[in-house]
Amino acid sequence: MEKTLLYQDKNVKKYLVKFYKEEIEKMENRIAQYINNNYTFEGFRKGKVPREIIKLRLGSEFQEMLLEEAEHELEHKLSEEEKILFPVIIESSSIEDDVIEFEVILHTYPKISKTNFEDMVVKVPNSKDIVEEYINQRLNELLESNVILEPKNGPIEYGDFVRFLYSVVDSEDTIIEEEMEYEVVVREEDPRPLTKALIGKFNGEEFELLIEAEETEDGEELIQKIKIVQIYSRKIPELNDNFVKELNIEVETLSELKEKIRKEGEEAVQEWEEQFIINYILSELPNYVEIEISPETLNYYVERTINDLKRRGTYENELEKFNNDEEKFREDIEKSALKWIKEIITIEHIADENNIIVTEEELNQAIKNFGNMYGLPYGRALEIVNSNPQIFEELVWNELRIKVAKFIKEKVKIEEFESTNKEEEKEKAQENEENSDTTNYNDNSNIEENQVQENHESKEI
Hints:
Helix 11 (360-373) packs across helix 12 (378-387). The protein is α+β, with helices and mostly antiparallel strands. Helices cover 48% and strands 21% of the residues. The chain folds into 3 domains: 2-108, 2-Layer Sandwich (Alpha-Beta Plaits); 148-235, Transcription elongation factor, GreA/GreB, C-terminal domain (Chitinase A, domain 3); 254-435, Orthogonal Bundle (Trigger factor, domain 2). The chain has helices at 21-38, 51-58, 60-81, 127-145, 193-198, 241-246, 254-284, 295-312, 315-320, 326-353, 360-373, 378-387, 389-409, 422-435, and strands at residues 2-9, 12-19, 89-96, 99-107, 111-115, 121-125, 148-152, 161-170, 175-185, 206-211, 222-235, 289-292, 413-417. The strands form 4 sheets. Strands 7, 8, 9, 10 and 11 form a 5-stranded antiparallel beta sheet that branches. The protein is built from 14 helices and 13 strands.
C-alpha cells in the first residue's frame, strides 16, 4: 500500500492511497477462495474453480467485491498506522490498470500541546469532620434499631411507630392495589401526604386520601384507603455502657464502641476521599489540557451527531432542552466533542508514556464488580463480558481511566476545607461523579435485556 499526503490541517489528513498488482492479486485470491468454499460452478468441482474463471463469470460483480475487499484492507492498515477518532472517510475510489486508488480523510488524534495538572487544586472536606459525623450517624442507627415499642391508645404524634392497612381503588371502587399491611415511623420531616394525614388518628380508625389525576400514570383519580392497626410510642434507649453491653458485640463500653466506629469511619472516609479525588480529576482533566485540533474534526462530530439523532428520531427532544435554539445545541455538542476527545487522547497518551496498563487481576475484579451491580455470579458476568466486546472494552477503559487519574493525583494539589454545609458536600461529590462520565451524544452503548436484567421491586406509598 502506497500512501501520499495530499492535505493536512492539524489532525485532519487527506491521503491518496494506492494498491498495486501484487497486493491486488492477494485480495483476488482471498475472494476466489471464499467463492470456491461457498458456491459451485457448472462444469467444475466445488473448490476447484480457477480465479480467472471466477472473474470472467462474475464480471463487474467481482470488481465490486474486489473494491470492498480493498476498502477493508485500507481501513485495517490505516488504523494500524494512525490513531484515528472516527472511521476512515472514503471520498473516492477507482480500479484501473491493475491499480486501486482511494482518496481518504482521517481525523487522527490531535497533538497534545500542553498539560498543566500541577495547577489543579482538589478541595476535599475535612476528614475529621466527616468521621465525627459518621460516628454520630452510626450511634443514632444503633439507637434507632434498638428502640423500645410500647402500644399506645392515644392519637398518633410525630415520632410514633404505626402499623396500618393500605389499599388503592379507583372511582368505581375497583381494586388497583390489594390491601397490605405497612409500618412507618411518623417523622415531621417526611413530606408525604399520607404521613401528614396520620397525625391525630386513633387505633382502628379508617380514612381515605385522594390521589389527584395529574399524579397518576393513567391520569385518573385514585383513592387510598387506610386503616390504623396499632399505634406505638417509641422509647429511645439511653446511650451508655449498659446499652453497649446489651448489644452483645465485641466491645463493652461506650468509649470502646466509639473508638471501634471511629476506625470504621476512618477507613470508609479514606476510600470515599480517594474516589472523590479520582472523580474530580477525571471531571476536570479536559480543562488542564491543550490540544491542536482542526475545526473540521469538531464540525464533523457535530454533523454526525445531529444526523444520528435525527435518524433515531430524538433530535427534536434534544433540541427542546435548548429552547429550540440550534446554535446553542450545536455549541453544546461541540463542547461535548472537545471534552471527549481531550479525555481519550490524554488518558491514552499518559498510559503509553508511563506504561500504565490494566492487569488481568484488575480486569477480573472489574468483572466481579460488574456482576455484583446486576446481581450476577462471577461465571455469568464473565460469560456476558467475553461475549460482548463493547462491554469488555468499556470495563477496560474505565479501569485505565482510574489508573491514569491515580497517576495524575501525584501531580495535583489536594487541600482540605472546613465545610458547614453537608448538603453541599454531597452535591459536589455527586457532581464530580456525574461529570467524570463524559457526555457523548453518539454513545449507543447498552446492555441487552436478555443478558442483564436489574430487578428493583419496591413499593412506595
